[in-house]
Amino acid sequence: MQIAVCGPRECGDVEAGWAWEVGRLLAEAGATVLCGGGGGVMAAVAAGASAAGGLVIGVRPDSDRGAVCAGLSAVVFTDMGEARNAILIASADAVIVVGGSWGTLSELALARRRGVPVISLGGWRVLDADGNPVGGTTLAADPAEAVALAVREAAT
Amino acid sequence: MQIAVCGPRECGDVEAGWAWEVGRLLAEAGATVLCGGGGGVMAAVAAGASAAGGLVIGVRPDSDRGAVCAGLSAVVFTDMGEARNAILIASADAVIVVGGSWGTLSELALARRRGVPVISLGGWRVLDADGNPVGGTTLAADPAEAVALAVREAAT
Amino acid sequence: MQIAVCGPRECGDVEAGWAWEVGRLLAEAGATVLCGGGGGVMAAVAAGASAAGGLVIGVRPDSDRGAVCAGLSAVVFTDMGEARNAILIASADAVIVVGGSWGTLSELALARRRGVPVISLGGWRVLDADGNPVGGTTLAADPAEAVALAVREAAT
Amino acid sequence: MQIAVCGPRECGDVEAGWAWEVGRLLAEAGATVLCGGGGGVMAAVAAGASAAGGLVIGVRPDSDRGAVCAGLSAVVFTDMGEARNAILIASADAVIVVGGSWGTLSELALARRRGVPVISLGGWRVLDADGNPVGGTTLAADPAEAVALAVREAAT
């Protein structure tokens, strides 16, 4: 089971704490963690998962060996800029979004486009042109709920 | 000047009419039109632009010669699925979004991630986790306003 | 009909002359020319084709607006490094190789992998591990023969 | 240290044996193995490396969960066709080529284009237009030599 965790490369303490805990719980659940391999939420989830002995794969937008966060088991350097986001999503059985940014929203949207389940922990929300919520994303209250939902969705 | 027009591959008559008119007006303004080269909004904008003698480039997610809409001057077959969206955006000086879908939202998000101006004509809207609108997209009332805004933004 | 012309970004006068003539003849034959949109062979084929009023699409590895050669009708900025080569090939009905380089050889190889016809004008050659030539590429003696062969192959 | 092993998806017993042994020796040397995650040489190297307890990452051209070989620690589904080859190469500190095919040659060429060291075990060879060998690839006599050379090159 491979679960991608997506979030901004600059984030606050709350999101970093959530991401670390999400990583830890995914590793304990035996899931392989996929992330962008950079800063912010990406670094926090890698740290949490690796602290629990989990397998963590970073999928980078560039080929810069010096821009990679700690805690990764292996790194795929796509050298493809934001097209990397599509690869992360295509590789995931479920996606957990932690916090919001434009890059993160593109990953949420690509996941819904492919039918990959998305669990959101403090992520951005989407309205149609009439102001009605666009469904398809499950909101979680905390990391434990996010991981439980993602693992359940990924298994089905 | 290259302007991408993005929108769902299945759309209603209102959006198709808007897209056709956006294509016509972009061609008359001398802009090269980039689109996904498929159905719905993509086909309508290609039809409108080609009817006005404009240059229209389709950027496809597959390599299927039979899935291409009419009206394209040339077609780039990326064979890369939704990563195609990142290429469309990286190639555009401005983006006009017509209508909403998950794929379209990924393009809007990638454009804002890169700092490419986005003009929205009936597109989806974005709220942060607290329910506040996330800025960065300009709403247009009709095709004429959308094209005028996009041309102005692309030129700066 | 879309024909890609591939060759090194730094080339000598002979290859530049061949590429210019290939571009001119492709435009006169009514083919759309695809190229990498950079220097050397790419710039020469774009110049030749545009001088003859042809449609020329540049497919770039980066998103640098200042690195683009003259003579292009439109430019697709993939921002994907050498993965751009796969897009050029997937978009072509036939490929003309002018001269040799590692990047050019990757395009020749990707074309043969996909079954896209390749015409070589001064390109590198390939031997198997036993030293026997690996077929699949047609050698041309001059630009006129290269274009005639490519147009014929692309039409079948 | 990440080392990519490239080779045809259909191969004979000799190449499969070489690839298995290359995988085993890379794992014993502590290198992470990258491969295409499919049949032939890809499956053999994954089997050899995983038998020795190594970390093996498959980088796939599609998103087909059923087309993946055994022995992979994690799989990145690029859904990008042959553009996957560029990602494999961009992620590698050195490349070992086992046997020859057009796809494999594209990887060899992309590696040389980027300056990534290439060790060849029964791979295709390249001549310029005058019939002279084009350098840049080191020939190995057996798996032990290939791995020793690749590990040395990757470390420098």
Secondary structure elements and pairings:
The structure is a homotetramer of 156-residue chains.
Chain A (H helix, E strand, L loop, with lengths): L1 E5 L6 H16 L3 E4 L5 H11 L4 E5 L13 E4 L6 H7 L3 E5 L3 H13 L3 E4 L3 E3 L9 E3 L3 H13 L1
Parallel strand pairs in A: 1-2, 1-5, 2-3, 3-4, 5-6, 6-8
Helix pairs in contact in A: 1-2, 1-5, 3-4
Report the total helices of chain A: 5
Considering residues with a beta carbon less than 8 A from a beta carbon on another chain, report the largest interface and each chain's count: A-B, 32 and 32 residues
The average pLDDT of chain A is 97
Count of folded domains of chain A: 1
Biggest sheet features of chain A:
7 strands, parallel
- Percentage of residues in helical conformation of chain A: 25-40%
Structural class of chain A: alpha/beta
State the CATH architecture of chain A. 3-Layer(aba) Sandwich
Low-confidence stretches of chain A: none
Work out the strand percent of chain A: 15-25%
- Based on CA inertia axes, which overall geometry of chain A fits? globular
Q: CATH topology of chain A, what is it called?
A: Rossmann fold
Describe the structure.
- The structure is a homotetramer of 156-residue chains.
- By secondary structure, chain A is α/β, with parallel strands linked by helices.
- Chain A has one domain: Rossmann fold (3-Layer(aba) Sandwich).
- Helix content of chain A is 38%, strand content 21%.
- Chain A contains five helices and eight strands.
- In chain A, strands 4-3-2-1-5-6-8 form a seven-stranded parallel beta sheet, with helices on both faces.
- In chain A, helix 4 links the parallel strand 5 and strand 6.
- In chain A, helix 1 packs across helix 5.
- At the B-C interface, strand 4 and helix 3 of B face strand 4 and helix 3 of C.
- Strand 7 of chain C pairs antiparallel with strand 7 of chain D, so a sheet runs across the interface.
